[in-house]
Please model this.
Amino acid sequence: MKFFIDTADIDDIRELAGTGMVDGVTTNPSLVAKTGRPFADTIAEICAIVPGPISAEVTATDADGMIAEGRKLAQIADNVAVKVPLTVDGLRACKTLSDESTMVNVTLCFSAAQAILAAKAGATFVSPFVGRLDDTGTDGMGLISDIVEIYANYPEFETEVLVASIRHPMHVVEAARLGAEVVTIPPKILGQLYNHPLTDKGLAAFLADWEKTGQTIL
Ligand code: E4P
Model:
């Protein structure tokens, strides 16, 4: 299972890359806007820090515009994955860019029908937004289960399920249980995955007992 981090914050990315847990990064226009930094420079910097796929989203809404923007973004680095929205134009752009061997992440997926279309368009990744579905009273992880099951019926589908809009550690655990290939995790939630009070308590007890021995390892 691959862990991407869902942020455009360079400091966070640098710090988390050091954990050895990060296989890629996803950004979106909102995350880039939060940094207040130039888009292309930010993507180039992220691509140099993390060798895996780095999603950079187009902002044109017509297919030709998305293709032109996608080609420009793809020139930033070999590991750019062009992110396009799940619209008719987005999937036309996805097909063209994928045929040119550019990685494409189809974003804003909210149904199994949309995920089938993304796979047929040759997407490298499809990003179903589980948290935003949960917010509407719909079962986000149920959608992941449906997509994983459907894709398994068609070995010719090479699209990886990238679980997005993660809101808590159980979204990550459930995505793993269902066999999704990738989760994109906000930095705060990646930190939460490490935590368990029994780990802290157990470590404190071990260290207290060790101190009583008066020994050191080095
Ligand atoms: C995914 O690629 C998106 O950037 C992200 O997961 C959206 O998450 P949000 O619903 O928390 O904004």
Q: What stands out?
A: The beta strands are 2-6, 24-26, 54-57, 80-85, 103-109, 125-128, 160-163, 182-185. Residues 6, 26, 28, 107, 127, 129, 131-132, 164-165, 184 surround erythose-4-phosphate (CB under 6 Å). The radius of gyration is 20 Å. The chain has eleven helices and eight strands.
